[in-house]
Amino acid sequence: MTTEVGSETDVKKEPEKVPEVQHQTDPVQTDQPDKPADSDPQPVASVAQPEESRSVEPESPQEESSSPDPSSPPAIGGQKKEKGISRFLPPWLKRQKSQSQDQASESAESAEKPQSLKEEEEESEPKDQPDGAGAAPNTEKTEEVKEESRPEEVQLEENEKEEEKSVGSADTQPVREEKEAESEVKEREEEKKEEEQVIQQETSVLSPLRLNKKMKMVVCHVTLLDGTQFSCEVEKRAKGQYLFFQVCEQLNLVEKDYFGLSFKDNAEQRCWLDPTKEIKRQIRNSQWQFAFSVKFYPPDPSQLTEDITRYLLCLQLRQDIASGRLPCSFVTHALLGSYSLQAELGDYDPEEHRLDYISDFQFAPNQTKELEEKVVELHKSHRGMTPAQADAQFLENAKKLSMYGVDLHHAKDSEGVDIMLGVCANGLLIYKDRLRINRFAWPKILKISYKRSNFYIKIRPGEAEQFESTVGFKLPNHRAAKRVWKVCVEHHTFFRLMSPENPTKSKFLTLGSKFRYSGRTQAQTRQASSLIDRPAPYFQRTSSKRISRSLDGAPMVNVSDYSHAVDSALTAGAGENGPALELNSDSKSKLRVQGENIYVRHSNLMLEDLDKTQEDVLKHQASISELKRSFMEATPEPRPSQWDKRLTGSPATTLRLQAQGVPQNSPPHPETDSRDVSKSTEVKPEVNGQPEVVEVVEETVVIEEVIKAKPKSSAPETPVTVETEVKEERSLSSDSESEEEEAEYHAQTPSASISVQQIEEEPEEEQEAGLIPQALPSVVESQPITEAEPADSAPSAEEEQATAQPEEEERTDKDDAPNGHAAEAPPPLRAVEEEPPVVNGSVSRVEAELLPQVICCSEPPVVKTEMVTISDTFAAQKTEISTKEVPIVHTETKTITYEAAQLDGNGDGEPGVLMTAQTITSESLCTTTTTHITKTLKGGLSETRIEKRIVITGDSDIDHDQALAQAIKEAKEQHPDMSVTRVVVHKETELAEDED
Amino acid sequence: MSAFGRFTHAVVRAVPRSLATEALRTGSVEELDLPRAQHEHELYVSVLKQRLGLEVLELPADEALPDCVFVEDAAVVCGDTALITRPGAASRRNETEAVKDALTKLGLKIVEMTDESATLDGGDVLFTGREFFVGLSKRTNQRGAEILADAFKDYAVSMVPVQGYLHLKSFCSMAGPDLIAIGSSDAAQKALKIMQQMSDHKYDKLTVPDDLAANCIYMNLPGKGDVLLHCTPEEFPESVKVFEKLKDHMLIPVSNQEKVKVDGALTCCSVLVCKNSV
């Protein structure tokens, strides 16, 4: 893990490559083009981060392998040299970096050079990139190579090596993959370029439409509920839904929304395969081995339309019972067992059915002779019952069991006591041992969130209570916390809502992950089921197959060799695909990356729907649901392509987010959660890997708010202190105001104000406590723009934010550049450069530099260019910094960018006239806040932009997520008139060298 | 999983003379009139036996066990399983022996609470037909509840803190399927809220003015339908009016004036069993 060869190569290439990749990706993912993707997301981290995009994919595998979150581990300053870091960095980071680098290169070649040098150094370092990830990286690299010939070539070679290594390393990967790898190697030998292409193909997301002839195929093994094994060949980049649909087709299952595919992660934890994301990115290094199982247990199985669905549910429950997951009393074991016998064997036949006839069945975890006798006794009483009736009876009894459909997760309460969290159709259950000690029905839950390894639910105040309360639980690790959170989100959506949450709903930035359940809800699936018009499908029950197998039959794995041949063939052809596909994949990855970051950071899900009564929900969704139904019904069958279309078509589509610059109507949310949410679906893969953050040293959050403001509104707010702005230094309270004031000042111009806030947290320094007193920088972020005054007062109350603002010490900085950006407003791109602020104490400003000013620009490309310029300046600075001797610290950098759709068209490439630009910087030990206020006049409209960068430095102990969430929250409250167009969170973590 | 309230057998125990002088008390200092208490109990048993037709196992009193008449605390029976408890009061631990023997005779699957750290009084166990609520009281601890949950795996077992009363069922009980009779006191209402929150099921509630009156016995007997044994008008006239609104129930007032002085309630004096469910 320590060194990654691939990363090195990547580094060199990255700068150049990046741009191309982005472009490619953009087109693919969303129709929307290229521009946004390139510049936007990356900008923040880009300059500073040495690592390249390519490394991303390879890294991802590594990341996967090493459960720890890539992002977290790395050390403080982005500026710090990232030697092996690139590996650790999540794919998205890498991409970002690469992009940023590109930008940087464009803007300032000089800057790039230094980086490249660094990179080279890094490269020199041993590259032990772990694993299979290599392939993915290669693709990116290859792309780069194409663009940039020589250096890239070298890199390519390295990449190839890496790929090979990775392949070998990934033990988990199925045989086929290995074969593929071999084939790949051969190809590589033949032609590097071709190989590269092939690789790229592999990495690229599978789209039904793929042109590539050489797509790599992988054989997926799916253990079905009857214990049999289903093997299915899929493209390596295929999404989960493709495989799922294949399985459903195999099963002849129509009511499939209750089911899902799961796999075991490296920690042997069961994870649900997100249908909207690439399989490969979800399973990481695990084998392509899945289990088809019930995901949502229907509370009333009798409402299922088809017998085959009930039958499958029965099979699942038999497993649950036999494994002990579903505890039953003796009598219930016997009763359910007897129905199983009736369904499988028909009427009891004294001649045919002797006592040992049931020895092949497992009715209970510990099956006794007594139980078997009881089962037989009851079996006799079921005479005349058809298999379907027996199944129905089975379900009628099973559904009453208290643990029916309860998904349990180990956790600890606030006092460290071991408890279990049970997620079910009605809400969240809390168990201590076997006792239910609390229950939170969905209507009682206002918000579900997770932060690191903590899982939180915000509870609606009771009748006698005035305030909401938040209950926190400690999960074993971050992944577990996220897993619970996702399961909750899915269950809530499936059982509680009429239709999946509309991604675009949220008005304001929500840093939380945007993951949402994207499938049908129970209401929808029932609706769809009611329309099923086919003769009851014939299906064979397990008895015939089972013979000597227990109900919970052991999975049999079949490896098909032919895949190998196919793969090789595919690879051969694959090279051709090249660029376009790759590009797409890249862009997606980028997007995903961003989403993840956000996700990780904030991980706050707002289940807004909860607040509403069901009735409200119904009303709200009534109109929409009709459309959706018709739509969904229209495409009942699982067609991957349709899915994709649907996803892409969705408003929230990841593209933009990923694209970075592209303004989304809805704030960042969708993007953040890219994994789960259908919206973000495209991005997904990386997310999975990324989410796990080992340690977070630094987080940088940039929030840009673009307020379309009507000039009037802005003006009034600003009035107070125009002049103070520059010089208000270090007066805590005043500062914040001053900033705002400044903003307002500028406001002279009209209306749009943009605020960008960045929060960087630097690790080593004081932790939360320190932050608080200083006023969390992060909090401040959003507020900056309009309401200087209000912000101070109001926010303070809420949380640290208020304080944070004041704390800021003003510095005049580089910000000039930012101002310029603002003027240019159009370019959404942000280049956030981070060059690792090596020293802990050192201010992180550097990192933040290029903030995303993407705000308005709907079109990414424009943004880029502008961004570039900005980035250059920063880059230059950074480069210098980097050159400086800084303690060598391995760092990981994550950048999350959230962009809201621009309200105004202003952003689009038209610069407008820059009226004013101000930059204020404040520093304290732990935080550095830089505020840029720019006002531009466009077509008679004034636009004020406030850009805030907040750097938080502190140990991992600091609750970065919370700080972020608070900051955003405050910002919203403080600047109701303004809109947040972008939030970029850049997080740098010092990697422990131990980590792999 | 038989119909809720269906019972075929009842286990009761005679009133020892020591009840008047040595029985544990939580509040009342009123002197217990032993003869009246014994008469009261005889009426209670006769209702079960003659009026309702249950097969009643009458255990002899044990003078060494002054509280032995309150057999409910010694065992929790649900379906085919009887959990022999470990009463919270050390002086009552031996009460379980006779009850266990009786339940064993009835062919129930016996589960014993052997964990020395566990305590459980049957009076803290409310079975609704869908789930258990276990009062965490001075007599019942979490470990006892865990063992109960282990004994009855089909059902959810939720914890309900009990304050100000001896047992959970000192102020509530089941008055019908999905119908909880509950007292009006703050403590009772609070406990009800907790139960409602903890349950996936929505229960109806029957609120009676007097907490003690909320302890009644519901049965669903073949040929008789819904049967409810509740307090007498002499004891709690206002509460009786509430019960009388249950038009579909066969209402049987049963006096409990004496036993209540030593914290005895209607449910305390019997263990009901349904052998058909086995």
TrEMBL record, chain B:
Gene3D superfamilies tied to this protein: L-arginine/glycine Amidinotransferase, Chain A (3.75.10.10)
GO molecular function: amino acid binding; dimethylargininase activity
Active site: H167 (proton donor), C268 (nucleophile)
Pfam family, one: DDAH_eukar
Name of this chain's protein: Dimethylargininase
Protein family (similarity comment): Belongs to the DDAH family.
Alphabetical UniProt keywords: Hydrolase
Binding residues annotated for substrate, in chain numbering: L24, D67, E72, D73, R92, R139, V262
Domain of life (superkingdom): Eukaryota
GO biological process: arginine metabolic process; citrulline metabolic process; positive regulation of nitric oxide biosynthetic process
InterPro entries in alphabetical order: DDAH-like (IPR033199)
GO cellular component: mitochondrion
